[in-house]
Specification:
The chain is α+β, with helices and mostly antiparallel strands. The chain has a single domain, classed as Hotdog Thioesterase (Thiol Ester Dehydrase, Chain A), CATH 3.10.129. It is built from two helices and seven strands, in the order βαββαββββ. A seven-stranded antiparallel β-sheet has the order 1-2-3-5-6-7-4, covered by helices on one side. A hairpin with a 4-residue loop joins strand 2 and strand 3. The protein is globular and about 45 Å long.
Length: 139
Amino acid sequence: MKYDPTLPWREVRGGGFNEHIGPVMFAQVGENEFHFALQLQDKHMNSVGVAHGGLTMSIADTGLGTAAFTAAGEKPVATIDFECDFLAPGKNGQMLHGVARVVRKAREFLFMEGDIYADTRHILRASGIWVIRSGGGKP
Protein backbone atom coordinates (compact mmCIF):
# COMPACT_ATOMS: atom_id res chain seq x y z
CA MET A 1 0.00 0.00 0.00
CA LYS A 2 1.31 3.42 -0.89
CA TYR A 3 1.02 6.54 1.32
CA ASP A 4 -1.40 9.10 -0.12
CA PRO A 5 -0.48 12.68 0.88
CA THR A 6 -3.67 14.03 -0.76
CA LEU A 7 -6.04 12.52 1.82
CA PRO A 8 -7.82 14.97 4.19
CA TRP A 9 -5.23 14.50 6.96
CA ARG A 10 -5.70 16.00 10.41
CA GLU A 11 -3.51 15.70 13.49
CA VAL A 12 -4.69 13.37 16.26
CA ARG A 13 -5.07 15.62 19.30
CA GLY A 14 -5.72 14.92 22.93
CA GLY A 15 -2.35 15.44 24.57
CA GLY A 16 -0.73 12.83 26.75
CA PHE A 17 1.20 9.98 25.22
CA ASN A 18 0.42 10.89 21.60
CA GLU A 19 2.28 14.18 22.07
CA HIS A 20 5.48 12.20 22.77
CA ILE A 21 5.33 10.00 19.69
CA GLY A 22 3.56 12.23 17.18
CA PRO A 23 2.30 13.99 15.39
CA VAL A 24 0.08 11.10 14.32
CA MET A 25 -2.06 12.04 11.34
CA PHE A 26 -5.56 10.66 10.62
CA ALA A 27 -7.95 10.70 7.65
CA GLN A 28 -11.40 9.22 7.11
CA VAL A 29 -11.61 7.59 3.66
CA GLY A 30 -15.02 5.93 3.78
CA GLU A 31 -17.76 5.06 6.24
CA ASN A 32 -15.74 2.16 7.67
CA GLU A 33 -12.22 2.88 6.41
CA PHE A 34 -9.67 5.22 7.95
CA HIS A 35 -5.98 5.97 7.38
CA PHE A 36 -3.30 7.08 9.83
CA ALA A 37 0.37 8.04 9.45
CA LEU A 38 3.57 9.00 11.27
CA GLN A 39 6.96 10.03 9.86
CA LEU A 40 9.64 7.91 11.57
CA GLN A 41 12.39 9.88 13.35
CA ASP A 42 15.47 9.12 15.46
CA LYS A 43 13.38 9.19 18.64
CA HIS A 44 11.29 6.24 17.34
CA MET A 45 14.25 3.87 16.84
CA ASN A 46 15.34 1.09 19.18
CA SER A 47 18.91 0.08 20.06
CA VAL A 48 19.40 -1.83 16.78
CA GLY A 49 18.27 1.10 14.62
CA VAL A 50 14.74 0.09 13.60
CA ALA A 51 11.36 1.39 14.75
CA HIS A 52 10.67 0.27 18.31
CA GLY A 53 7.97 -2.44 18.47
CA GLY A 54 6.16 -0.53 21.20
CA LEU A 55 5.97 2.47 18.89
CA THR A 56 4.45 0.51 16.02
CA MET A 57 1.93 -1.06 18.41
CA SER A 58 1.11 2.40 19.80
CA ILE A 59 0.58 3.81 16.31
CA ALA A 60 -1.74 0.90 15.51
CA ASP A 61 -3.66 1.43 18.76
CA THR A 62 -3.88 5.17 18.07
CA GLY A 63 -4.99 4.68 14.47
CA LEU A 64 -7.54 1.96 15.18
CA GLY A 65 -8.71 3.76 18.34
CA THR A 66 -9.21 7.07 16.54
CA ALA A 67 -11.11 5.19 13.83
CA ALA A 68 -13.28 3.54 16.52
CA PHE A 69 -13.93 6.94 18.13
CA THR A 70 -14.97 8.36 14.75
CA ALA A 71 -17.12 5.34 13.86
CA ALA A 72 -18.84 5.56 17.27
CA GLY A 73 -20.07 9.06 16.44
CA GLU A 74 -17.19 10.69 18.37
CA LYS A 75 -18.18 9.02 21.62
CA PRO A 76 -15.32 8.06 23.94
CA VAL A 77 -13.96 4.55 23.36
CA ALA A 78 -11.44 2.37 25.16
CA THR A 79 -9.30 -0.50 23.90
CA ILE A 80 -10.33 -3.73 25.65
CA ASP A 81 -8.53 -6.25 23.43
CA PHE A 82 -5.58 -5.66 21.11
CA GLU A 83 -3.44 -8.09 19.13
CA CYS A 84 -0.75 -7.50 16.57
CA ASP A 85 1.70 -9.41 14.43
CA PHE A 86 5.07 -7.91 13.56
CA LEU A 87 5.90 -8.65 9.93
CA ALA A 88 8.97 -6.46 9.20
CA PRO A 89 10.85 -3.49 10.71
CA GLY A 90 10.31 0.19 9.97
CA LYS A 91 13.42 2.29 9.38
CA ASN A 92 14.36 5.85 10.25
CA GLY A 93 12.96 8.38 7.78
CA GLN A 94 10.24 6.09 6.42
CA MET A 95 6.60 7.07 6.46
CA LEU A 96 4.60 4.72 8.66
CA HIS A 97 1.06 4.67 7.38
CA GLY A 98 -1.84 2.39 7.99
CA VAL A 99 -5.41 1.57 7.32
CA ALA A 100 -8.06 0.82 9.95
CA ARG A 101 -11.33 -0.90 9.15
CA VAL A 102 -14.49 -1.42 11.16
CA VAL A 103 -15.19 -5.16 10.91
CA ARG A 104 -18.33 -5.10 13.01
CA LYS A 105 -20.17 -2.53 15.07
CA ALA A 106 -22.40 -3.64 17.94
CA ARG A 107 -24.35 -1.47 20.38
CA GLU A 108 -21.44 -1.21 22.84
CA PHE A 109 -18.46 -2.58 20.90
CA LEU A 110 -16.45 -1.96 17.75
CA PHE A 111 -14.42 -4.78 16.23
CA MET A 112 -11.49 -3.33 14.28
CA GLU A 113 -8.63 -4.55 12.11
CA GLY A 114 -5.76 -2.75 10.49
CA ASP A 115 -2.40 -2.86 8.78
CA ILE A 116 0.69 -0.66 8.93
CA TYR A 117 3.19 -0.10 6.15
CA ALA A 118 6.65 1.51 6.14
CA ASP A 119 6.67 3.21 2.77
CA THR A 120 5.24 0.28 0.71
CA ARG A 121 6.37 -2.64 2.92
CA HIS A 122 3.73 -4.31 5.12
CA ILE A 123 5.19 -4.29 8.66
CA LEU A 124 2.33 -4.91 11.12
CA ARG A 125 -1.14 -6.44 11.21
CA ALA A 126 -3.48 -5.62 14.13
CA SER A 127 -6.96 -6.33 15.41
CA GLY A 128 -8.89 -5.39 18.49
CA ILE A 129 -12.10 -4.58 20.27
CA TRP A 130 -13.07 -1.12 21.51
CA VAL A 131 -15.88 -0.50 23.99
CA ILE A 132 -18.02 2.58 23.48
CA ARG A 133 -17.98 4.33 26.85
CA SER A 134 -21.11 5.95 28.19
CA GLY A 135 -19.31 8.65 30.19
CA GLY A 136 -17.44 11.70 29.00
CA GLY A 137 -13.74 12.13 28.60
CA LYS A 138 -11.14 12.47 25.89
CA PRO A 139 -11.23 10.17 22.84
